[in-house]
Write a structure and sequence with these properties.
Membrane topology (chain B): Multi-pass membrane protein
Keywords (chain B): Cell membrane, Membrane, Transmembrane, Transmembrane helix, Transport
Number of strands of chain B: 0
Number of strands of chain A: 2
Distance between the termini of chain A: 12 Å
Structural class of chain B: mainly alpha
Family (chain B): Belongs to the binding-protein-dependent transport system permease family. CysTW subfamily.
Number of helices of chain A: 13
Largest sheet of chain B: none
Order of helices and strands of chain B: HHHHHHHHHHHH
Order of helices and strands of chain A: HHEEHHHHHHHHHHH
Protein name (chain B): Spermidine/putrescine transport system permease protein
Helix content of chain A: over 70%
Helix content of chain B: over 70%
Pfam family, one (chain B): BPD_transp_1
Oligomer: heterodimer
């Protein structure tokens, strides 16, 4: 507020600073979205796009079972991934923030997210090496005689979920850690002084105070997970398709931009609904 | 006391398990990039650098690598410039509808890359803009601008505004204030924004996949390599990419973040 009061008076030159970024976003983000919305009402006949102005592409989503199924698959996988990642990452971030000596915390954190920097495409592929029928896990389990037949780990929903969770545990560890270290130790001292045990201190003091960090991380996970094509395509096989795979099929194999656009917009609507649900925790604040 | 040590042990075990989970695929990737056989799977048949030689001798991969660097550096320069100017404008001037402008600038963050890439593909199709590295680079600026803007905007504090004011009082022009005062003060934020934007562009797949045709970036070339099945050559490329990224992370950690903590 203090800064807003001190900001200099409006003058036309100020637009010059903001205009390039605004124009770029308008031209290459908003305009394409409008084009997509328009095309979603068209129709592909032969190799031509025909302006038919109907909701046929949207109705297809509800009429054809496999579109609806893909959306449900996507939602299921995303929710499973988000919840699993939070449950795994929270204690991990807590251990780094509380149990690791402050001098080593940065190192611990850098290590915790180092594989984040492997190529995204390669990261999914490396899970294939781990999960394949003749991969590390199956060979190890066969070697020690725990199983007689290789487990069918790759090319399944489990593989997709593992690949996703791997990525998002790193992301969430980062956001939750950032929240935990900001927490003043006074709160916990006060809770302890007032007679709260470690468990109730955590449940009634620490957890609510770190909820914003969890929620921002959860939203990021949701958005990135539901819109991702690579991980399900590499790890999931073709037993069940997720929305991005179905959309890519419309573009790649069938060059059906109208249907792909309608599906993309439906996916965006789902993300928007999620955003509204998370909105109270997500703010862009200036330090 | 016994309770405490039990909890410390449990914490250690948990941390080791999670670290194990995080590093498992990377370790397997790197280990089998040295495989002296045709498959990157057990058993390990012996140590060899032949797959790294194969990667370095692969002109398509090397070309894609060069393309990736050009797109990453170019798009990041544009992104940081746009992000810096808009952050400066919004933080220092009284502009109408600031909230709307900020929302517009950060909006692409909530839309999946696939959809952004698809929108650009259809739009470029319409206006006859050919698929190219330039088209992919434009998309990379779109996806990285929200992040760069947010990072730089968050560092535009009050004390810097006062220093800028002092410079203006001493007769500096707007241009001099920006280049000689604001930008140097924000250098850690600018570098972090540039660096992050570069790593995201360097690693971005789906937009590049949709918007390039003949000249492709490294992730797209790796993608086509994947179609040949499990192959130690893919491991070797992946390990190289990981090695380069890890070095960059260490540089960022040592140069920028350490300075920022002064």
């Amino acid at each position: 507020m203090a800064l807003a009061a001190r900001a200099r008076r409006f003058d036309l030159g100020a637009w010059g600073f903001v205009a390039p970024a605004l124009l770029w976003t308008a031209a290459f983000f908003v305009a394409p979205f409008v084009v997509m919305a328009v095309v979603s009402l068209w129709e592909r006949i032969g190799t031509d796009l025909v302006a038919s102005w109907s909701f046929a592409n949207y109705l297809k989503f509800f009429e054809r079972g496999h579109f609806l199924e893909a959306m449900l698959n996507s939602l299921e996988v995303t929710v499973i991934v988000t919840v699993t990642s939070i449950l795994l990452a929270y204690p991990f971030a807590w251990i780094i923030a509380e149990k690791v000596p402050p001098r080593l915390q940065r190192l611990a954190l850098v290590l915790a997210i180092l594989p984040f920097w492997t190529s995204y495409v390669v990261r999914s592929y490396s899970w294939l090496l781990v999960l394949a029928n003749n991969g590390i896990i199956n060979e190890t389990l066969l070697g020690i005689g725990l199983i007689g037949e290789p487990l069918d780990l790759a090319n399944s929903r489990t593989a997709t979920v593992i690949g996703f969770v791997h990525f998002f545990v790193m992301l969430l560890t980062l956001t939750i850690y950032a929240n935990l270290v900001q927490l003043s130790p006074n709160y916990r001292k006060a809770a302890a002084d007032l007679g709260a045990g470690p468990l109730s201190t955590f449940w009634f003091v620490v957890l609510p105070l770190t909820l914003p960090g969890i929620m921002v991380g959860a939203f990021l996970t949701f958005v990135l997970c539901i819109g991702d094509y690579i991980t399900p395509q590499v790890l999931g096989g073709n037993n069940e398709l997720l929305m991005p795979q179905v959309i890519m099929l419309q573009i790649g194999r069938r060059a059906d931009f109208p249907t792909a656009s309608a599906l993309a917009i439906l996916l965006m609507i789902v993300v928007t609904i999620a955003y509204l649900g998370f909105a109270r925790w997500i703010r862009l604040e200036r330090a | 006391m016994r309770g405490t040590s039990w909890r410390t042990a449990a914490s250690s075990v948990y941390a080791i398990l999670v670290y194990g989970f995080i590093f498992l695929p990377v370790v397997v990737l790197v280990l089998f990039s040295f495989q002296d056989g045709r498959f990157p799977i057990p058993p390990f048949e012996g140590f060899s650098l032949r797959w790294y030689e194969a990667v370095l001798a692969d002109s398509r991969l090397m070309e894609a690598l060069a393309n990736s660097i050009v797109v990453a550096v170019g798009s990041s320069l544009v992104t940081v410039l746009l992000g810096f100017l808009s952050a400066y404008g919004l933080a220092r001037f009284a502009l109408p509808a600031k909230g709307v402008q900020r929302a517009l600038l950060t909006a692409p963050l909530t839309v999946s890359y696939l959809i952004i890439g698809m929108g650009l593909l259809i739009t470029f199709n319409f206006i006859g803009f050919p698929k190219s590295l330039l088209a992919a680079g434009i998309g990379h600026v779109v996806i990285n601008l929200p992040l760069c803007f947010a990072i730089i905007y968050s560092q535009m504090g009050d004390h810097q505004a006062n220093i800028e004011k002092a410079a203006r009082d001493l007769g500096a022009s707007e241009w001099q204030v920006i280049t000689l005062v604001t930008a140097p003060m924000l250098w850690p934020a600018l570098f972090a924004a540039f660096f992050l934007s570069m790593t995201f562009s360097w690693d971005e797949f789906i937009i590049s996949f949709l918007l390039t045709r003949f000249d492709v970036t490294l992730p797209v070339e790796i993608w086509s390599l994947l179609r040949s099945g499990l192959n130690p050559k893919t491991n070797a490329v992946g390990s190289l990419v990981f090695g380069i990224s890890a070095v960059l992370v260490v540089v960022l950690e040592l140069v920028v973040l350490r300075k920022g903590r002064r």
